[in-house]
Design goal:
With 411 residues, the protein is of the alpha+beta class. The protein is built from seven helices and 16 strands. The termini are far apart.
């Protein structure tokens, strides 16, 4: 009996030891996976982040895309080369986005853009965006202060049709970023200049006895200087971005048509170096200075194509993509939906978008809403609103139409 008890006791101890070993193994594996995931998380860093926020409700409701969609007053952000294809002679829009409402209630983005077609083949356009980071309270007692950091950008563009189906555009931009949180420190507002180069092609073809259209667009924006906030000799990159997309539109009948669109984006900004195993802090600091801060903006564009630590696979992870659709009824009522995807190692911004628009001869109203699919995403429940005005429609409304001044291009 004693031998049996001893045998049972030995079995219990053996099972316990095995279970403890399994638990320790699982714990070590979990810790290793967590550490690997931490090491793999490597988003692209840049300054003036507000330049990467889509300002208008139409593009925002289709998954944040618009480089190849039908031209409208908000094309300045997506692709200024689209303006010569606009139906209206001139237009203006105003957009408002309450930003990160799950975190704070006083951050917002306001944007105004407009265009004017010169003849039938070229156009001038401009936009102004203002990104407010709300009020920040600093200090205590007599040293307390309230600051209001903000970022803004103003740009102008010229676009021209080079053939009946192809156009190009260029834009120039001035950027101002005042995010100083301590005016007693050696810091200052940052300034930068940038340019955009854009292309757009729109063609028509017959499919199932319907005149369909297919367009593609390309926009390399924010090609320009780095921005410095003082305090040291280092300057930060601005969000230079390569955007490529297409749009397919099929009319079902005279009143109904459906558009399907897709965009791909790649930031042309170098990846911030990560510290290697066994690398001393001083060596790492010197390498960051040499491989990141000392790199010029143009060299940084080419470096961004091959500098990801994990090679080609990680470079592909830096591509964000969006898909969206728009149903249009008689150019009066629009319903839109889309999806935006960013790899979890590069920021993990994944969300579904939806929205609608209502258009009259004089004005149009659009709204968009974001449903986050990633856990604890601060972009969840973000809304955008856009109010657009057709200046031709306003002339017609007030009886000031004269000659061909408000002539609209046929679809």
């Amino acid at each position: 009996m004693n031998n049996k008890k001893r045998l049972y006791l030995l079995l219990i101890l053996l099972v316990g030891a095995v279970q403890l070993s399994i638990f320790n193994y699982q714990l070590s594996i979990g810790s290793a996976l967590a550490q690997d995931k931490k090491n793999m998380f490597n988003p692209v860093n840049y300054s003036v982040t507000s330049l990467a926020i889509a300002p208008d409700a139409r593009g925002g409701s289709m998954g944040d895309l618009g480089v190849a969609t039908e031209a409208d007053a908000n094309s300045q952000y997506w692709n200024p080369a689209k303006y010569p294809f606009n139906v209206a002679r001139a237009g203006v829009s105003a957009s408002y986005t309450p930003w990160l409402r799950k975190l704070v209630n006083d951050i917002n983005l306001a944007n105004v853009s407009g265009f004017y077609r010169i003849g039938d083949y070229s156009a001038l356009s401009a936009s102004l965006r203002f990104f407010s980071l709300g009020e920040v309270y600093l200090g205590e007692d007599e040293n307390a202060m309230t600051i209001k950091p903000y970022e803004m950008a103003v740009d102008v563009a010229y676009s021209r049709m080079l053939s009946k189906c192809f156009s190009m555009g260029v834009a120039m931009r001035f950027i101002y970023s005042d995010i100083t949180y301590d005016y007693t420190a050696e810091s200052k507002a940052g300034k930068a200049f940038a340019a955009d180069i854009a292309m757009y092609r729109l063609g028509y073809f017959m499919m199932a006895n319907r005149e369909c259209s297919f367009g593609w667009g390309l926009n390399i924006n924010n090609i320009g200087s780095k921005i410095s906030y003082g305090g040291d000799d280092n300057s930060e990159f601005i969000p230079t971005n390569f955007r490529l997309g297409c749009n397919f539109t099929i009319p079902f009948n005279k009143y109904n048509r459906l558009s399907l669109a897709a965009d791909a984006n790649k930031l042309l900004v170098p990846t911030y170096p990560k510290q290697r195993d066994g690398e001393a802090d001083e060596e790492y600091t010197d390498r960051v200075q040499r491989e990141y801060y000392d790199v010029s903006p143009i060299s940084g564009i080419f470096k961004s194509l091959h500098d990801a630590p994990n090679g080609f696979k990680e470079e592909m992870q830096e591509i964000q993509w969006s898909v969206g659709m728009e149903y249009n009824y008689n150019d009066r009522f629009m319903v839109r939906a889309g999806y935006h995807h960013e790899h979890e190692n590069k920021g993990n911004r994944k969300y579904v978008t939806a929205g609608a628009g209502f258009k009259m001869s004089v004005f149009a109203i659009d709204a968009a809403y974001v449903f986050s699919t990633a856990q604890s995403n601060p972009l969840d429940q973000t809304m955008r609103f856009t109010l657009s005005f057709d200046l031709d429609g306003m002339k017609d409304l007030f009886g000031k139409k004269n000659g061909g001044g408000s002539k609209k291009r046929k679809r």
